[in-house]
Amino acid sequence: MATSADIDIKWSMKAGSIYNNIDLIEALLECGWRFDYGDSYFYLPLGDEDFNWERTNISKQELLGVFRKKEQLGEIIGVAMVWGDLGIGGEFLFRNNHTFSVCLTINRKVVERGGYTNVEWYLDKLIPVLVNAQLDIVSIDFSEHI
Fold first, then answer.
1. What pLDDT, in 10s, does the model give residues 22-72?
2. Structural domains counted in the chain
3. DSSP the chain
4. Residues of the domain holding 18
5. Can you give the pTM of this predicted structure?
């Protein structure tokens, strides 16, 4: 049986700021996260309602353009992201209610003893992005099913 692990983060904007999912995705990219997943990108296409992930070889800018359209239409933005050259990451799901989830499926980082998810490693890569963007963290939920 496979282990599944997820992190759900709810955030809010400081008074007077305007911030959306595209801004958050760009902040993640600036801080070390990458779309690169092998030789292509893995994402939820425009109009998707059933989580039918697709691979594409379009440019990063074209992919961000797809995400901008999805944001305007109120669709969930989904993309696989990994941390730097380590290849550790998962599928990120960005919703219009200031929440995003990370399904920790790509080379899941585990603690040495026990094989449980090293959630601290992921939080160390996610929380600074929100703090640097001056976003407030409302809640962080982690779940793991073994």
1. 999 999 999 999 997 778 899 999 999 899 999 999 999 999 999 999 999
2. 1
3. ---EEEEEEEEEEPTT----HHHHHHHHHHTTEE--BTTBEEEPPTT-SS---EEE---HHHHHHHHHHHHHHTPPEEEEEEETTTTEEEEEEEETTTEEEEEEEES--B-TTT--B-HHHHHHHHHHHHHHTTEEEEEEEEEEE-
4. 4-145
5. 0.94
